[in-house]
């Protein structure tokens, strides 16, 4: 009997304001170790799809499951921790990244998710430092950070805080230079479980800490897609 997929999307349909489909009857599964790259022209619904999977957007029809259990059967905060959406640019938040990290750690749903997780938390500040973010930046107001600094810090929090089984990445390195982008890519791939037949540069490495089990990744870079993806899905065809 085949194993239950980590994530299942079945017959998902989203309508535009004029009731025409943005995409329709979209189905796919995601297994541990996979990185599904979303492709498609601007406006084809890539970001909308990630938000639907994260239960942040309504959809007209379809089902999303984690470990065979439908999203509506989970508590919403628990689902959004386990299936975590990371936006391209973090919304302008009050205070500092360190304040934000403290708030996230204090949430009861986050504590519950961590209790049931395997492995130790990957220190978000240490992870961001690997990506070129000096620790003093965590004490600066969000509004004073550059786009690349804010992007790396928000991603480090999402990855390092633990609890997420599927990370939904909306162009996570769009504000970074090539060197920084590749550092982020290598870190994320190193956290995934091994995938049989994985030919990527970071395939078959020992999983580090309590990282995600699979990724869905939007990128407009064909080179990045080739580096990180195990397969791709073109929304322009749906």
UniProtKB/TrEMBL annotation:
Q: Which stretches make up the ABC transporter domain?
A: 7-235
**Nucleotide-binding is among the record's keywords:** yes
GO MF annotation: an example: ATP binding
- Per UniProt, which keywords does this protein have? ATP-binding, Nucleotide-binding
Q: What Gene3D superfamilies does UniProt report for this protein, alphabetically?
A: P-loop containing nucleotide triphosphate hydrolases
> SUPFAM superfamilies from the xrefs?
P-loop containing nucleoside triphosphate hydrolases (SSF52540)
Q: Does the keyword Nucleotide-binding apply?
A: yes
User: Which organism was this protein described from?
Assistant: Kwoniella europaea PYCC6329
**Record-given protein name:** ABC transporter domain-containing protein
Show the stretches that span the lipid bilayer.
none
